[in-house]
Design goal:
- The protein is α/β, with parallel strands linked by helices.
- The protein has a single domain, classed as 3-Layer(aba) Sandwich (Rossmann fold).
- Helix content is 49%, strand content 11%.
- The strands form three sheets. Strands 5-4-3-6-8-7 form a six-stranded mixed beta sheet, sandwiched between helices.
- Helix 2 packs across helix 9 and helix 7 crosses helix 10.
- Bound molecules: Fe4 H S5 and zinc ion (2 copies).
Length: 305
């Protein structure tokens, strides 16, 4: 039987790659301290910042919100209702329950009111749903945060997400994306600062934190997630991790600490979209283009059109 490294009680968690075992209480303590260290290491934000946490109802984002709350940061949540049937309904309910239980402020933005639901857009857009869904979430998250005076947007991206993205960007030597892959993206030209305080935690570690902290999260995956190439990359990295624990953390953190700075910083000039005013690289932003496409489809399906 493994014993907690801190108190010697029966351990409930063994972290292979850190070679460390914890009881419930000391795992939570270890997790919170590591979140705080990550925030400080990358100078993500301070107690004076007003944070907006992107909440999906899953283990990562709710663990993040819970940790920030316990660490006494000022953090409200934003749930973007994507309108993906039962999955979105369950997720919204989980977020509401979470916020109510802790007396936290949750904002809900309805994508249907802004443009259309993800399944509706999928009917007019050939790209994989995750490609435009990611774009829409970034756009509305940033717009909402800026309009409501939030200084930082925090997302629950974990080590599995980040190492899989890194793997994919290395496979295609996408230098532009590699240069942007960092736990903090500073504010600029209408863009609010973005931070990822959970980059050093695996999905499993976040699930453990959620479970041991009594967080009711939605386990169901979004139906569009299936088939995404990131899932294949995650599988490959998990096989490597199984054989050599610590591979994901080493791969990602060595990139951040040893390689990222060598890529240099290429300034991307942003300008306001001529239709909505949000920052973009082209005349009209991608969300306005998508809106136009969706509107055309709606008009063409009206009787006598
Ligand atoms: S919600 Fe949207 Fe994800 Fe669903 S469509 Fe893809 S990006 S998988 S996090
Ligand atoms: Zn203990
Ligand atoms: Zn626009």
């Amino acid at each position: 039987m493994k014993r907690c490294y801190k108190c010697g009680q029966k351990a409930v968690v063994f972290l292979k790659h850190h070679r460390i075992a914890f009881c419930r209480e000391h795992y939570i303590e270890w997790y919170l301290r590591r979140v705080e260290q990550t925030i400080k290491e990358f100078r993500m934000f301070g107690k004076e910042d007003k944070l907006l946490v992107a909440i999906s109802g899953g283990k990562d984002s709710l663990s993040l919100w819970d940790a920030l709350y316990r660490l006494s940061y000022s953090a409200d949540g934003l749930y973007i209702n994507l309108g993906i049937g039962e999955y979105s309904q369950k997720s919204l309910q989980a977020c509401k329950n979470f916020a109510d239980k802790r007396g936290l402020k949750l904002h809900v933005l309805d994508l249907q009111k802004e443009i259309a639901t993800i399944p509706q857009i999928k009917e007019v857009e050939k790209r994989p749903a995750c490609s435009f869904c990611g774009q829409l979430k970034r756009y509305y998250m940033n717009r909402f945060a800026r309009m409501h005076g939030y200084t930082v947007i925090a997302t629950g991206h974990n080590l599995d997400d980040e190492s899989a993205t890194l793997f994919s960007n290395v496979l295609s030597w996408n230098i532009e994306y590699l240069a942007r892959q960092y736990p903090v993206l500073p504010e600029s030209d209408g863009l609010v600062r973005k931070v990822k305080p959970l980059v050093k935690f695996t999905e499993k570690e976040n699930a453990l934190y959620a479970f041991l902290s009594g967080i009711d999260y939605v386990e169901e995956e979004c139906p569009f997630a299936e088939g995404a190439s990131s899932i294949e990359h995650k599988k490959i990295l998990s096989q490597l991790e199984e054989k050599s624990p610590g591979t994901k953390l080493r791969f990602y953190m060595d990139f951040i600490r040893k390689f990222h700075a060598l890529l240099g910083h290429k300034e991307v000039r942003l300008r306001p979209c001529s239709l909505c005013g949000e920052p973009t690289v082209s005349e009209v932003c991608s969300v306005c283009k998508l809106k136009e496409k969706t509107n055309l489809k709606t008009l063409s399906s009206l009787p006598n059109s």
